[in-house]
Amino acid sequence: MKKVLYYMNAYKKESVLAPLFKLLEATFELFVPLVMVKIIDVGIAQGDKSYILKMGGVLVLLAAIGLTVSITAQFFAAKAAVGSCTALRQAMFDHIMDLDHSAIDKTGTSTLITRMTSDIAQVQNTVNMVLRLFLRSPVIVFGAMIMAFTIDVKSALIFTVAIPALAIVVYGVTAGSMPVYKRAQEKLDKVLSLTRENLSGARVIRAFAREDLEREAFGLENDTLAGTQTSAARISAITNPVTYVIVNTAIMYLIYTGAVKVNIGELSQGQVVALLNYMSQILVELLKLANLFVLFSKGVACAKRIEAVLETDTHPDIDKTAASANAEADVSVTAPGDDAFIRFEEVGLTYMGAGDSAIRGVSFAAKKGETVGIIGGTGSGKTSLVSLAAGFYRATEGAVFIDGKNIDSYTDEELRKRISIVPQKAVLFTGSIRDNLKWGNPDADDERLWSALKIAQADEIVKGKAGGLDEHVEQGGRNFSGGQRQRLTIARAVAADPEILILDDSASALDYITEKNLRDALAGMKDTTKFIVSQRASSLIYADRIIVLDDGEVVGVGTNEELLKTCDVYREIYETQFERSSGEEAV
């Protein structure tokens, strides 16, 4: 909770003024029954209409003052709650942006979305209500009890029994509901995850006619969530009836004893009404307090989930001890060997929670300006290898060196300036084509953008649009075809003028002619080291060297001609695609 409460520091004034104004409102409210005593025992008893009107005016004045201070208190409470949770949401988003791929994989996208939205909204509501009620309700409860003692000590003794009994009920409901609400939020994560998966895979679901099965799966998760929420609601539902039983029993006792004492002249009718009013005030405030504790239970559960994300290590896959030792021993020591710009030395990667390593014992080097092809079967570790080169994951074995420095010595910002990557899935963002192309280089002028588009074979796409570079891009780039999206994402990476360009199977939607033109254009980037991941041997035959992966290990390194002679895995891929299919030559 400390991390969550930290963001209220900027709203200390509002956090103090809100409960203080509520305290002032409670004080005025406690005077209302005393005014009613005067109206009944003096005004009505003596038939003094002017006195009744005067006391009625006092009631209106108390109501007006109470309304004013109540609105003021709610303004400060809302400002503190909304402001602090806005800062919390921003801090959480910033932290998520700093998380590396391992941390995001471990937590899960759907869970992060739930905690960014539902959980923070719950915390905001809790903060708002706590600031408004945590002083007001106890003050009215104990203030009403004290005021009752000033009227009649014996009658007020019932208050000393009712209030502890009500406190026990509230505590029991809170203790019982808190863990259930926590489980409900976890179930909500699963429902959101399933919803997100179904929406993103809607076409696949329809293609395989699995709508009924997915409805059934969603129904099961939804029913589980409903069951958990119902369990929490059942516990919370105990509050009102039990509270009403206790308070109404106390009211019955007050009416009985009050009637007897009025009959024998020990109490006036107005005093009995005042006692009943104080008991009613206690009932209302304890109900509010009970609901506040239920809300507080939800808020605490959500705050702990938010805090867990904020405490998540941004680089959980890095050995902290080794990193500290490297920092002290100057991790920028130049890697041994020749003038390689990027070098892998016995590199291995094991994903968090995985039993086996994704890649192991990978060693190779690439000079500045070279084109390195990476090929292998599905699941051979191609994407894992380039993810290490991009710094998305950190090696669990060995080391990666860029320009003679261990990659761990670079900050994320430094790596992003030197490296551009085009992922397997082409992703465009809402805005214009120009906005998307400037992601890697905000200062790029139109000449640079058109040059990048030409290299990516995407200039004709933009020229064909009425808005040109300012053509609107819808969410996910859905107003462009798959091949157009791929070429625009390649152009975005090229526009950054990177030292290392990684194309992770990002030309799969291009025809052979367009891909050949793209390959020729990329060859002209003499100062950029290119990594091209592809399932097509034809995409890599002109690479300066090709790395062949099989089950996470390098089984061959060399040119196309060398690998055809020395690497069985590469030869099989090549022959399957060319000689055995049609005997055609590579394009």
Helical stretch tally: 21
- Measured by DSSP, the beta-strand proportion falls in 5-15%
Total beta-strand segments: 12
Main sheet overview = 6 strands, mixed
Detail the poorly predicted runs.
318-337, 580-587
* CATH second-level architecture of the largest domain: Up-down Bundle
- The rough form would be described as elongated
Q: Could you tell me the CATH topology label of the largest domain.
A: ABC transporter transmembrane region fold
What is the rounded Rg? Answer: 35 Å
Helical amount among residues, as a percent range?
55-70%
Class inferred from helices and paired strands? alpha/beta
CATH homologous group name of the largest domain: ABC transporter type 1, transmembrane domain
What is the rounded distance between the termini?
62 Å
What's this, in brief?
The protein is an alpha/beta fold and 587 residues long. The protein has helices at residues 2-6, 12-46, 49-98, 101-107, 109-133, 136-151, 153-200, 202-207, 211-237, 239-264, 269-310, 320-328, 382-390, 412-418, 433-437, 446-455, 459-463, 482-495, 512-523, 560-566, 568-577; strands at residues 342-349, 359-366, 371-376, 397-402, 405-406, 419-422, 431-432, 472-473, 500-504, 529-533, 545-550, 553-558. It has a six-stranded mixed β-sheet with strand order 6-9-10-3-11-12, sandwiched between helices. A four-stranded antiparallel β-sheet has the order 2-1-4-5. The protein has a two-stranded antiparallel sheet with strand order 7-8.
Structural commentary:
The strands form three sheets. The chain has a six-stranded mixed β-sheet, sandwiched between helices. Helix content is 64%, strand content 10%. The chain has two domains: 7-310, ABC transporter type 1, transmembrane domain (ABC transporter transmembrane region fold, Up-down Bundle); 330-577, P-loop containing nucleotide triphosphate hydrolases (Rossmann fold, 3-Layer(aba) Sandwich). The longest helix is centred in the first third of the chain and has 50 residues, at 49-98. It contains 21 helices and twelve strands. Helix 19 (512-523) links the parallel strand 9 and strand 10. It is of the alpha/beta class.
